[in-house]
Amino acid sequence: MRKPLHEQAVVITGASSGIGRQTALEFARRGASLTLAARNDAALRALAEEIRHNGGKAQVVVTDVAEWDQVDRLAREAVAKYGRVDTWVNNAGVSVYAHFEDLSIEEIDRVIQVDLMGQIYGAKAILPHMRKQGSGTIINVGSMVSKRSVPLQSIYSAAKHAVKGFTDALRIELEHERAGIQVTLILPGSINTPFFSNARSKMGYKAAPPNPVYQPEAVAEAIVHAAEHPLRDVFIGFAAKAADLIERVSPDLGDQLQLAGGYGFESQKSGEPDNGRDNLLGPVAGPGRTHGEHAGHASSWYTRVFELNPGLKYAAAGLAAVGTVGLVAALARRTARPSLPLPSLDGHGNGYGRALASGIDSGLRTIGVKS
After folding, report:
1. Which residues form the domain of 250?
2. Does the keyword Oxidoreductase apply (predicted)?
3. Lowest mean pLDDT: which of 45-59, 71-85, 330-344?
4. How far is Cα 59 from Cα 33, in angstroms, rounded to an integer?
């Protein structure tokens, strides 16, 4: 049985913006005591002040998760402040949008160190403390690309695949030992955060999230829920789950969706020229922001109903299968007539995510369900 949130001490990495920032605000609203970690000291302090102003508890520990010594210090300072850590959220992440051959060794190493080793370091640092407590929850933020790799993000895809592998292995070890420590993997689809404007881009344009896009509130809701309720993994958005199912059933289909008309490439370009500013090697100056520059759904009906209720997951898999059938049928029609664009929810036909979502929508309509 997990502690209620108002009794929990929570650590969040990557808390200065995006998913991490929104998650911190939601935990604080529910009464948790927070340790906020990221590289941007000013943004963290502004967030902590906002939380305290609203009656919450928060301390700041400036941390680069790519450095083991700093992550180990983060764990020790969190325990020293609150006496324990009930939930640890490994959320920090960076990316470089580029063809693999255009990446430098420094860029490759940095993405792996932050996105993979940062999560491994987090678990390594907090596990001894959770073992002493006999309880705790580690929440690793993966991605839809933990299941389905995408072009122009080869190293990010590799790191997030590895995060899933690490998370699954750690979970089994702890369950085998009956350690009382839950390990959850969060798998967001496209989320409207500053991640895209802050990512390094070698495409000539700023990065953009393929549709359908969700707001960070949808991810924060799932993370906070997992802190109280044991969950194995949670997909954010129906398209993310459908992409997983396609990968299981027909990886070639997933490839073809991204290759058709170059949609897997073009859907990740914003059309706005890149300004050369990024957070790969250091934080972007200025206050932290929760939201990016893209419209999106504030929540996911699918995630809320099915992913956060394990007993309904079989039904969720059935719905995802329906979406896959619709998508396969749509792709087959366009394979026979290649001059036709892939389907799109917004009528423009530009993007792998839109093609996927349209297939899901088409499949759902065949059984009279609204997505």
Report:
1. 5-365
2. yes
3. 330-344
4. 9
The CB-side HSE value for 96 (13 A sphere, CA atoms) comes to 24
What is the rounded CA–CA span in Å between residue 184 and residue 156? 20
Q: Are strands 181-188 and 233-236 parallel, antiparallel or unpaired?
A: parallel
Chain-wide mean pLDDT for the chain? 89
The pLDDT, as a whole number, for residue 182 is: 98
Average pLDDT over every residue of 107-122: 99
Tally DSSP H helices, then E strands, for the chain.
14, 13
Of 156, 165, 160, 246, the C-alpha closest to 196 is 156
Q: Could you tell me the sign of the dihedral formed by the alpha carbons of 158, 198, 299, 42, in that order?
A: positive
* Number of domains present in the structure of the chain: 1
Question: How far, in Å, are 3, 65, 163 from residue 85 at the CA level?
Answer: 11, 17, 21
Residue 91 lies in a domain: yes
**Cα–Cα distance for residue pair 179/170, rounded to 1 Å:** 11
CB 264 within 8 A of CB 257: yes
Cis peptide before 212 (omega within 30 of 0): yes
The residue whose two tokens read 């969040």 is 12
Helix (H, G, I), strand (E, B) or coil at 199: coil
- CATH number for the domain harbouring residue 254: 3.40.50.720
Q: Is 82 a catalytic residue?
A: no
Q: What is the dihedral of CA 239, 244, 246, 250, to 10 degrees?
A: 160
Of 121, 156, 214, 352, catalytic: 156
Contact call for residues 206 and 230 (beta carbons, < 8 A): no
- The answer to whether residue 371 is domain-embedded is no
> Is 166 inside any structural domain?
yes
Average pLDDT over residues 269-290: 94
Note whether residue 370 is domain-resident: no
Contacts of 119 (CB under 8 A, 6+ apart): 65, 90, 140, 163, 166, 167
pLDDT tens digits for range 147-174: 999 999 999 999 999 999 999 999 999 9
